[in-house]
Amino acid sequence: MIVAALMGFASGLPLLLTLTLLQAWLTQAGVSLGEIGLFALVGIPYTIKFLWAPLMDRYAPPLLGRRRGWLFALQLLLALAILLLGQTDPHRNLTEVAVFALLVALFSAMQDTVIDAYRRESLADDEQGLGASLYVWGYRVGMLVASGGGLIMAQYAGFALTFAAMAALMLPGLVTTLLAPEPVTHRPLPPSLRVAVVGPFVEFFTQRRNAVLILLFVLLYKLGDTLATTMTTPFYLELGYSKADIGTVVKLFGFWATVLGGFAGGIGILRIGQYRALWLFGLLQALSTAGFAWLVYTGPVIGWLAVIIAFENFTGGMGTAAFIGFMANLTNREFTATQYALLTSLMGVPRTLLAASTGYMAASLGWADFFIVCALLAIPGLLLLRRFRDWLQPASDAPADATQANRE
């Protein structure tokens, strides 16, 4: 559980460097709202993790083992990419900024693939929900440091020094990788690359009922929440909040709400079951997204910002914990990296491909209607969840054969 939290930090740190922190940098440099929205495309690697995941299932580096060997090399490359991103200049060469931001996203997505596989293989099935909540806690700490701490530091030290500091903060992840035990698995490596590529998909689609609907649900469950989050930094700045306001209230204050939400989500899954948790947390996520529209009418009032952020982060922490636990239990330990990458790739689609249009959506609809539309986008995923009720209901309510099927 401790390793899950520490690896969550290493995973969450680079994500918002190419979202919140980079958006603030581009906004300050005078880049248009539409172009800022298009920068969401640098996150494409998060949607194609299944392309390289079979290599990580099939091959083991010569040092540190299959999971830790890959992880250590990727974390070194990621730290270097973050450092080089900070040396670019949006005023002079926006393409260069995009290239290095893409490299950060690529190495970050590859790191996530290995971390997800490590957590799945290190924890028992009934520990996945709580492990996910600890992972979310660490993930949010990393996001807090990158966005909240990064924005505050950029206010006084500039963006180049801030990105250099973020690169140095990959050191805890490297130390964790060196000290953590390699997952013990009794399954051999896939005998060939072909088996590593084809096997996970054949197993997923033949051994699960409603496999296609499961993938559609993964795509839709956090769609509205993710699209709204993509444009929140320009939203705050346009309302009149300073970078220090955003870093202090949105990131630092909101962090504690996320921590509580993550723990509440992990405990809630154990108490009410996965199905009810996904329903309740998903509904609360949608309501919190709609809450951003209220800030349009209040203006830059710190008190209202704190209330909305506390609600959004608390419900987001619960929803993410339930969602990650749901995906982990769908994977087969023989093909952990590839199957989990398939699911998280779909989860990343809204943050990249679909989010690329959010700048134009916000400019066309206005901020209030934009957030209302994002809240309504949660409905299809919640309706689809009803199709999984028979095997997601709490174990105490399920017949023995259904419980066993869910484990398998």
From TrEMBL:
CDD domains, alphabetized: MFS_AmpG_like
Cellular compartments annotated: Membrane
GO MF terms, alphabetically ordered: transmembrane transporter activity
GO cellular component terms, A-Z: membrane
Transmembrane residue ranges: 36-56, 68-85, 97-118, 130-153, 159-180, 211-237, 249-270, 277-297, 303-328, 340-361, 367-385
Keyword vocabulary terms for this entry: Membrane, Transmembrane, Transmembrane helix, Transport
Database matches in InterPro entries: AmpG_permease/AT-1, MFS, MFS_dom, MFS_trans_sf
Record flagged with keyword Membrane: yes
Gene3D superfamilies: MFS general substrate transporter like domains (1.20.1250.20)
Membrane topology: Multi-pass membrane protein
SUPFAM superfamilies given in the database record: MFS general substrate transporter
Domain Major facilitator superfamily (MFS) profile: 1-393
Protein name in UniProt: AmpG family muropeptide MFS transporter
